[in-house]
Amino acid sequence: MVSEHSDATGGDTAPLALKILVAGGFGVGKTTLVGAVSEIKPLRTEELLSEAGQLVDDTDGVDQKVTTTVAMDFGRITIRSGLSLYLFGTPGQDRFWFLWDELSQGALGAVVLADTRRLEDCFPAVDYFEHRHIPFVVAVNCFQGARAYGAEEVSRALDLDGGTPVVLCDARDRDSGKEVLIRLVEYAGRMHTARLLDSVS
Ligand SMILES: Nc1nc2c(ncn2[C@@H]2O[C@H](COP(=O)(O)OP(=O)(O)O)[C@@H](O)[C@H]2O)c(=O)[nH]1
Ligand SMILES: [Mg+2]
């Protein structure tokens, strides 16, 4: 967790900046989500899919996708006065797994984006955060043409631990993305508090 203590008066209003990861399969809308909610011009490291990459990157079911995020997306959003979130979109392809351990250092929690047409693509991200006890919410990006599933169905299909929130969203919509982030901050806050209480009891 990154926190700034720029308040010279030492009041209790020091701005808080929390680190959030945005994960999920290739083409699920991570770059779109970070771009939609970010107040700063999102930093992207998109590259045209090279011919070589096209042989490895599975673009089945991903419409008109010609770029891929090779390292990560970065953005910032102020949730309320004094509380900012720094968003790190993790690379979607398995060959970039090695970056995750670095990225997840100090993260409050994660958003796992899911597309119900290719739900299995988010299994690795779900496994990763479950194993490391990093709080996460699953955000179902409701693509046009995809059959609408309820949050309950998605939760069962992913075999999530009870309590892990599932939120339906539109990654292109700022308010929708912000709602996902607020759910995550609330949920992660509860999880961290519960762990803290456990550790002292
Ligand atoms: N129809 C629709 N298209 C979307 C949505 N989110 C993303 N896309 C498109 O899906 C493609 C993949 O999105 P992108 O954000 O690059 O995926 P990433 O690989 O997870 O970063 C892009 O062409 C987006 O414009 C959505 O909610 N609805
Ligand atoms: Mg991307």
Automatic annotation (TrEMBL):
It comes from the Bacteria. The keyword GTP-binding applies. Coiled coil: none annotated. InterPro entries: Gliding_Motility_GTPase, Gpn, P-loop_NTPase. Keywords: ATP-binding, GTP-binding, Hydrolase, Nucleotide-binding. Belongs to the GPN-loop GTPase family. This is ATP-binding protein.
